[in-house]
Amino acid sequence: MTSIDAVVAGAGLWGCTVARRLAESGRNVLVLEKRPVVGGNVRCETDPATGIEIHTYGSHIFHTHLDDVWDFVNRFISFNGYQHKVLARYKGKTYFLPLGLTLVNQFYGINLTPSELPAFIANEASRDVPQGVTPSNFEEQAISFVGRPLYEAFIRDYTRKQWGRDPKELDASIIRRLPVRTSYDVNYFSDYRQGIPLTGYNSLFDRLLNHPNITVQCDTDWLTWKEGEGKALSHLPVFYSGPIDALFGYKFGALEWRSLNFEVERVNCADYQGTSVVNYTLADVPWTRIHEYKHYHPEQKDVMAHPETIICKEFPKKWELGDEPYYSVNNRETDELLAKYKQEAAKMSNITIGGRLGEYKYYDMDQSIARALAVDLT
Ligand SMILES: Cc1cc2nc3c(=O)[nH]c(=O)nc-3n(C[C@H](O)[C@H](O)[C@H](O)COP(=O)(O)OP(=O)(O)OC[C@H]3O[C@@H](n4cnc5c(N)ncnc54)[C@H](O)[C@@H]3O)c2cc1C
């Protein structure tokens, strides 16, 4: 590459999509990535012994209803048609999520029809939170949607583990809706376009970045690079998807995140749990879910039949500066802090800030791509 026209800082889905668009519009792009490899939190590694694709930063299932996003990713990869189902372990029994006819009928040992379900749930809900009373916290809000028995079985302890706070201390506005499906559909996502890349997630990034106008440099933190090696290029437009508070040296304080620990285990059996994800809804175990990665590729017959499998227990934890940030903790305090950083960002002329870290917002993969497709490149 002779000259550089733009710098992309961060090679996750957002950064790689922006880089590809810049390259296709004829501009020479330098992509800088802090980690040793590209892919951000969608990065995977393949276990050499079994061929299992391990999702390094937690299970990732691609799903979308956005035509432009689907068309865009399908230029680079094909999907295997995997449809995501999540099971929940509660008091020694296993239930299909999400909340719907399957779960409710099994949980209560009844046989409601689709038309009977809404009235049944409304009746359960009205027992503890009478109509007309405004719920004052997450717990009351959830009970007002589904009733206490379902709340206590599937939501209370899981929420406590996930967010590290009692649901009574969480804001009611966190759950605006808790839809209960009136069908036996146990597909976890309602998007019919779903799947896992046949050639693995890493191939998506390799192909996005495989363009003569793109140069990739890993192990490079743009925040340090711009003060040294990159100083001469400070006039170039930058597309940054690192944390917004890090961009300003955390001068107003650090935005709060939830972090995760993943404990990966090799297990000496072909199939440990019969599905890719099982949630553990109660506080009697410290993990929230167990992932079994081989189930994401049912088309890989040899991998499926391998006498070993790999599982991963997921443990939410408090985030400290330096930990991997996973879920933004959006509340009044962090909203105020974010607004301050956004005000600072608005004063900068040649930087576009995006991605989940830059916007401090949870985005599914399709939303991350959609946001990147909408970025103004001029
Ligand atoms: C546990 C978990 C599970 C998820 N599961 C799903 C799922 O099943 N389906 C789904 O659709 N979505 C899922 N997501 C969401 C998905 O991970 C995100 O949509 C996606 O990773 C966002 O991409 P991004 O580019 O914004 O951020 P990231 O993937 O975080 O990429 C940002 C990149 O920028 C780099 N970077 C940061 N600072 C700098 C710097 N100063 N210089 C250079 N590089 C820098 C980082 O190292 C990183 O590589 C999940 C998210 C989590 C947390």
Briefly say what this structure is.
The chain is of the alpha/beta class and about 375 residues long. The protein has 13 helices and 16 strands.
Structural features:
globular, binds flavin-adenine dinucleotide, alpha/beta, 31% helix, 7-stranded mixed sheet, Rossmann fold, 378 residues
Topology:
Elements (H helix, E strand, L loop, with lengths): L5 E4 L3 H12 L4 E4 L11 E3 L6 E3 L6 E3 L2 H8 L11 E5 L2 E4 L4 H8 L8 H12 L9 H9 L1 H16 L29 E3 L5 H9 L4 E4 L4 H4 L12 E3 L3 H4 L9 E11 L9 E4 L8 E4 L8 H5 L3 E10 L8 E2 L3 H15 L4 E3 L1 H5 L5 H9 L5
Parallel strand pairs: 1-2, 1-10, 2-9, 6-12, 10-16
Antiparallel strand pairs: 3-4, 5-8, 6-7, 11-14, 11-15, 12-13, 13-14
The structure holds flavin-adenine dinucleotide (FAD).
Report strand %: 15-25%
For the largest sheet, list the strands in their spatial order: 7-6-12-13-14-11-15
Q: Give the CATH architecture of the domain at 6-43 and 63-77 and 198-255 and 328-373.
A: 3-Layer(aba) Sandwich
- Count of helix runs: 13
- Give helix % range: 25-40%
Structural notes for this entry:
By secondary structure, the protein is an alpha/beta fold. Among the domains are: 157 residues, NAD(P)-binding Rossmann-like Domain (Rossmann fold, 3-Layer(aba) Sandwich), CATH 3.40.50.720; 77 residues, no CATH class. The chain has 13 helices and 16 strands. It has a seven-stranded mixed sheet with strand order 7-6-12-13-14-11-15. A five-stranded parallel sheet has the order 9-2-1-10-16. The longest helix has 16 residues. It is globular, with a radius of gyration of 23 Å. The mean pLDDT is 95. Flavin-adenine dinucleotide binds next to helix 1, helix 8, helix 12 and helix 13.
